[in-house]
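Renewal narrative, Specific Aim 1. Our central claim is that a sequence can be written position by position from structural information alone. The example that follows is taken directly from our test logs and has not been curated for this report. It begins with the structure tokens describing the chain, in the order in which they were read.
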């Protein structure tokens, strides 16, 4: 059984609490991603990009994901969910990383992506993933657990609110990317 200590440096790494968790239906498991999962994670990310109507900005490759998750300085962490019937075929992925709040003077846990294939939704898998990350945030003494949601995705907004999340209407995402990033970097 894979333990937290095998993939993540957490307080729980010193305990025997497994990361390998079962969904309420008992037919699915949540576990840290492994390198052989990369093709599946990449395909799931593409599905998410199609769903979110963002394929024009989808640039991830299997090699870039391998470096991001398993390289010498991983940029992010990834969990997968698979069915007991097909343990080597993830049907969901959860990508997260740590950030930092100057006001709280604590790091936070930032959920970048959570995607469950449509045919597996409504079975408690998203809830299981959110609970796992919330537990990790508490164990790591994070000041907050946060993420963004597209304003048109009412199903996701309702799902997050049911789990106690607060949608912050007074905040806006500020992003500089592509040519604008290059220009900003060259300004003197």
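The sequence written for that structure reads:
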């Amino acid at each position: 059984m894979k333990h937290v200590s095998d993939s993540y440096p957490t307080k729980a790494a010193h305990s025997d609490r497994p990361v390998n968790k079962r969904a309420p239906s008992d037919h699915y498991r949540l576990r840290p991603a492994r390198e052989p999962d990369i093709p599946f994670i990449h395909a799931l990310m593409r599905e998410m990009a199609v769903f979110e109507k963002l394929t024009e900005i989808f640039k991830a490759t299997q090699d870039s994901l391998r470096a991001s998750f398993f390289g010498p300085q991983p940029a992010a962490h990834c969990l997968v969910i698979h069915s007991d019937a097909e343990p080597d075929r993830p049907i969901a992925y959860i990508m997260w990383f740590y950030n930092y709040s100057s006001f709280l003077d604590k790091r936070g846990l930032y959920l970048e992506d959570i995607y469950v294939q449509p045919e597996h939704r409504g079975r408690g898998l998203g809830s299981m993933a959110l609970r796992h990350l919330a537990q990790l945030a508490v164990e790591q003494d994070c000041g907050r657990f946060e993420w963004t949601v597209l304003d048109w995705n009412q199903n996701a907004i309702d799902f997050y609110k049911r789990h106690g999340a607060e949608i912050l209407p007074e905040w806006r995402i500020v992003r500089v990317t592509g040519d604008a990033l290059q220009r900003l970097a060259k300004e003197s």
